[in-house]
């Protein structure tokens, strides 16, 4: 009769090793099963010399094994010694293929050797054995790999790292660490933020990039892999790069098939879902426990604490507090009522929709990064135009949105369970409205990075944010007295789509009839006339396209494609047609807009026959402006060279308005026909410069202007991120002192002295250099009369246009 162990632990990573060491210290009969010939295979497979972090630093470690931040090799050596000292019964090369039986009598089948019997089973197998694979064409070529053992093996290679989590960043840093190796390293991140990575890793990545040892490409995805090359999609379009090797580190998925075969249920059908666990880590199969990364806790310190705790729970301890309990008690101390931490966690998770998909264990980690607060009735949660990129979830009560700045009594309610503040989260814009508690209300405030991490890790949260933002955008665009209940059927079948530059969402002649909302980015409309595409119109974010085929049930009359990387919401035609039949006001409004668009299309088509060259010129100028960033601009400076006399008054006025430093270069930039796009900020809808600003110094003002605040540290990240070269690094001129200080103490610059010129002379005399800071156009925010460049132009050549008005610039004389 084989021995029956009290506990069988499968997997010797930080969680499993810690559980086995504690079981040994407690004198429990146990066995630690490891399928390789060494402990902690995940850490073992880290790249050589990798620095392993011990975060969160505020969390107490209660394991029987030691752990502190340090090199991979030192940590593994320490754990080997700890396991030996504790007397752990470990069996190597024990690969588990099945678990059968019930609590008190489990049988663990191995691929080799006799079965193991145990009363309780702890699964600590992690997720790293199931890496997510690249899905683009060519992803199966031999030079694509999903593991990096030793960065020193590679020299003089062009290497792309795909993945922006800790593993991807650490691999890229290792490959770029030694300049003597001669590697050209590029890391790709599909989003603008590194939401999955630790701050220390992101900081190290940016420092390496700033030192010129690595290229970081954000909002970029691979689209084609060829021998020696990789093609990527960027916000500006596709680009092809030399590539000898690809290291793909895009995370991993739980080994769901094996886990479910043990009788364990998952929290949802999502591929990234985790097993359903009790607060004691017990699964839906009594007697089987899950800890570590498979439980949704990937941080080493968390895993080791779980290993200690789960053994205590199996021994019958019921009053053991989690290690993070004191931290959460302090965070929740100011809330009304007398709830325990576990009760508050359940309350928030159950009542805030975007948190529904989190497990109780994930909820604990998530709350460490967030804040919960109770608000009194009429208390302001945030004020219109205040900076802020966090999102709020309503756990109880409700809030009211003041939609009319001139009349705070006009409000729109948002009820329990929903979110608000998502505009700041998605676009980085200042708060668009004042929001107050309509009654005593409890809200959880989720910082931007925590929210992005939540959306990346929990598909249900991402889907909820997409649904709510889609609902609000539809209501805002179509108005006509619609309510959320009116569009519920339409949104039930809505699909959020990411569209790369140049990709068509509608093709001329197609018989499809869905409607498209442009959430971000912009579209251009083209029609085939005379055998070539002719530019017809431009569709900015916040508008829609496809209504003609939807209303008239006819084939598509034009092609609609993305001017830049865009996000669209596809609304199914049939539910929308039923909505139109119930809402005659909406139908009338849409038909009026449709007829207006058809008249413009018909006019351009008629002009093509009579004035073909002029129409072609109009189309060419419009396409030129799109390529110059108009598609993502909110305000751009253009110069009509048929009117410009080269006086440079625009540059001089800009310098006079900004202490002697001009924020535009009239001669620089590109020209087509008579339209010149000088080097000046476009104030993009989703600013590239804002995506990586460590002190969050780049903000958006109340009129849409993107400006740089006094908190700039001169890192230069924004200058490198801007694709249009409109940001300069320069030493800021001093502010003019009061007249009496200049007269009595000689402080300058004085009357008539340009600040910029004075600073250069003073710097030369003193022999000291002040640090350079980022400088760019701020649309003369706060200055009367608007942008000085436009006001100073004597001929009217300089104009500033918004996307919805730029087509007027592209019109040419067709007579």
From TrEMBL:
One of its GO terms (molecular function) is metal ion binding. Gene3D superfamilies: 3.30.70.20, FAD/NAD(P)-binding domain, Jelly Rolls. The keyword Flavoprotein does not apply. The keyword Protein transport does not apply. Pfam families: cNMP_binding (PF00027), Fer4_11 (PF13247), Pyr_redox_3 (PF13738). PROSITE patterns: 4FE4S_FER_1, 4FE4S_FER_2, CNMP_BINDING_3. Residues 635-667, 703-732, 771-804 form the 4Fe-4S ferredoxin-type domain. SUPFAM superfamilies: 4Fe-4S ferredoxins (SSF54862), cAMP-binding domain-like (SSF51206), FAD/NAD(P)-binding domain (SSF51905). Residues 354-455, 478-597 form the Cyclic nucleotide-binding domain. Keywords: 4Fe-4S, Electron transport, Iron, Iron-sulfur, Metal-binding, Transport. It comes from the Bacteria. PANTHER family: DIMETHYLSULFOXIDE REDUCTASE CHAIN B, OXIDOREDUCTASE. This is Oxidoreductase. It comes from Phenylobacterium kunshanense.
């Amino acid at each position: 009769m084989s021995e029956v162990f009290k506990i069988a632990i499968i997997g010797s990573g930080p969680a499993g090793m810690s559980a086995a060491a504690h079981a040994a210290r407690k004198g429990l009969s146990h066995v630690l099963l490891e399928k390789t010939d060494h402990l902690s295979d995940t850490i073992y497979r880290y790249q050589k010399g990798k620095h392993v972090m011990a975060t969160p630093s505020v969390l107490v470690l209660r394991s029987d094994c030691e752990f502190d931040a340090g090199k991979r090799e030192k940590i593994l050596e320490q754990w080997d010694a700890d396991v030996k000292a504790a007397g752990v019964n470990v069996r190597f090369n024990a690969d588990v293929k099945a678990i059968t039986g019930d609590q008190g009598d489990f049988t663990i089948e191995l691929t080799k050797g006799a079965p193991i019997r145990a009363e309780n089973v702890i699964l600590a197998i992690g997720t790293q054995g199931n890496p997510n694979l690249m899905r683009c064409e060519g992803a199966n070529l031999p030079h694509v790999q999903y593991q990096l053992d030793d960065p020193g093996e590679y020299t003089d290679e062009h290497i792309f790292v795909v993945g922006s989590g800790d593993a991807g960043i650490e691999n890229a840093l290792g490959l770029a660490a030694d300049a003597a190796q001669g590697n050209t390293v590029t890391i790709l991140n599909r989003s603008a933020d590194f939401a999955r990575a630790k701050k220390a890793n992101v900081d190290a990545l940016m420092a390496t990039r700033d030192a010129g040892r690595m290229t970081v490409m954000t909002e970029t995805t691979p689209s084609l892999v060829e021998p020696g090359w990789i093609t990527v999609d960027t916000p500006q379009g596709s680009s092809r790069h030399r590539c000898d090797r690809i290291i793909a580190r895009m995370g991993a998925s739980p080994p769901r098939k094996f886990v479910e075969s043990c009788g364990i249920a998952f929290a949802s059908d999502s591929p990234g879902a985790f097993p359903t666990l009790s607060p004691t880590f017990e699964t839906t199969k009594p007697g089987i426990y899950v800890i570590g990364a498979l439980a949704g806790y990937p941080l080493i310190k968390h895993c080791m604490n779980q290993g200690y705790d789960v053994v205590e729970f199996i021994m019958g301890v019921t009053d053991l507090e989690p290690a993070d309990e004191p931290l959460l008690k302090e965070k929740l101390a100011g809330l009304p009522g007398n709830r325990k931490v576990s009760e508050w966690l359940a309350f928030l998770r159950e009542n805030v929709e975007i948190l529904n998909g989190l497990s109780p264990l994930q909820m604990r980690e998530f709350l460490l990064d967030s804040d919960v607060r109770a608000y009194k009735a009429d208390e302001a949660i945030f004020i219109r135009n205040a900076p802020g990129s966090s999102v709020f979830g309503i756990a109880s009560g409700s809030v009211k949105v003041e939609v009319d700045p001139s009349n705070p009594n006009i409000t729109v309610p948002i009820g329990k369970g929903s979110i608000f503040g998502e505009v700041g989260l998605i676009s980085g814009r200042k708060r668009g409205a004042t929001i107050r508690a309509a009654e005593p209300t409890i809200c959880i405030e989720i910082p931007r990075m925590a929210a992005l991490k939540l959306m990346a890790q929990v598909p249900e949260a991402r889907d909820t944010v997409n649904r709510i933002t889609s609902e609000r955008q539809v209501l805002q665009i179509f108005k006509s007295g619609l309510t959320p209940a009116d569009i519920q059927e339409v949104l039930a079948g809505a699909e959020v789509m990411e569209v790369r530059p140049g990709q068509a969402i509608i093709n001329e002649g197609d018989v499809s009839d869905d409607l498209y909302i442009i959430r971000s980015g912009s579209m251009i409309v083209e029609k085939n006339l005379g055998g070539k595409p002719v530019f017809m119109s431009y569709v900015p974010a916040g508008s829609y396209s496809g209504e003609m085929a939807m209303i008239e049930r006819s084939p598509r009359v034009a092609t609609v494609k993305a001017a830049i990387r865009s996000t669209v919401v596809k609304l199914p035609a049939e539910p929308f047609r039923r909505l139109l039949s119930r809402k005659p006001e909406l139908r009338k409004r849409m038909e009026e807009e449709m007829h207006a668009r058809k008249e413009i299309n018909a006019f351009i088509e008629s002009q093509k026959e009579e004035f073909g060259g002029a129409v072609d010129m109009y189309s060419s100028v419009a396409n030129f402006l799109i390529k110059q960033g108009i598609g993502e601009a909110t305000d751009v400076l253009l110069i009509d060279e048929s009117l410009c006399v080269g006086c440079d008054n625009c540059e001089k006025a800009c310098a006079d308005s900004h202490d002697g430093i001009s924020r535009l270069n009239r001669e620089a930039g590109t020209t087509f026909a008579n339209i010149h796009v000088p080097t000046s900020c476009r104030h993009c809808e989703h600013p590239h410069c804002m995506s990586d600003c460590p002190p969050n110094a780049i903000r958006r003002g109340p009129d849409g202007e993107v400006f740089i605040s006094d908190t700039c540290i001169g890192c230069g990240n924004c200058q490198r991120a801007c694709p249009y070269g409109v940001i300069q690094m320069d030493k800021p001129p001093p502010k003019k002192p009061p007249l009496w200080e200049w007269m009595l103490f000689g402080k300058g610059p004085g009357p008539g002295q340009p600040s910029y010129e004075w600073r250069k002379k003073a710097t030369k005399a003193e022999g000291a250099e002040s640090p350079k800071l980022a400088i760019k156009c701020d649309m003369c925010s706060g200055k009367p009369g608007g942008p000085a460049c436009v006001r100073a132009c004597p001929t009217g050549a300089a104009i500033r246009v918004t996307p919805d008005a730029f087509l007027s610039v592209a019109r040419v004389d067709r007579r």
